[in-house]
Amino acid sequence: MTKQVAVILAGCGVYDGSEIYETTLTLLRLDQLGIGYRCFAPDIEQHHVVNHLTQEVVEGEQRNVLLESARLARGEISPLEELDADKFDAVIVPGGFGVAKNLSDFASAGDSMQVLDALKVALVGFREEAKPIGLMCISPVLVPRLLDEGIAVTVGNDPAVSGAISAMGGLHRSCGVEDIVVDLEHRVVTTPAYMLATRISEAATGIFKLVDRIAEMMD
């Protein structure tokens, strides 16, 4: 496996971490294409813990984002601070509410959000070296703060999130669940995934297209 992709996680579970299906489908497609990968996550405490059966916050419980992300990566994961863009050909950020709660404060701050400094630092090299960056589900909301204004992205057709992207100086493009939006100039690829998906097969189609396009852009 000559090509290598960094995958940045935000915990484990749709309501307080990384979306499990989106992460698994991303890793599956990378492996099917013969592309190596390494997972990374910030070594910080989660914003909160959510009971995924009831979708209620579990009061008094705290978990670590890196340790929770290790569940998804089967233990093969490194702290986000160790991500060196020079060692990878691209980076992908799956969705899940952990993106809006742990990697940023979008869930509470909306278009006034701030992005985790460690994430900004980690992605500087990818942007400066024009290496492909893939984001799915809610994670494209990070782009105006994380990369720059004026970059075309999609979260599907959610009016609140697309409005926040526009308010931060981003460019939102409506998109179906099984498709992608590509900003060739800035080397950014996005897909709605579970912002729209009602079945895992729907999410898979768009995610596979995203990974395939990232692979093409690495050549």
UniProtKB/TrEMBL annotation:
SUPFAM superfamilies: Class I glutamine amidotransferase-like. InterPro entries: Class_I_gatase-like, ElbB. The keyword Aminoacyl-tRNA synthetase does not apply. The keyword RNA-binding does not apply. One of its GO terms (molecular function) is lyase activity. Coiled coil: none annotated. It comes from the Bacteria. Keywords: Lyase. It catalyses: glyoxal + H2O = glycolate + H(+). Displays glyoxalase activity, catalyzing the conversion of glyoxal to glycolate. Belongs to the peptidase C56 family. This is Glyoxalase. It comes from Halomonas campaniensis. The lineage of its organism: Bacteria, Pseudomonadati, Pseudomonadota, Gammaproteobacteria, Oceanospirillales.
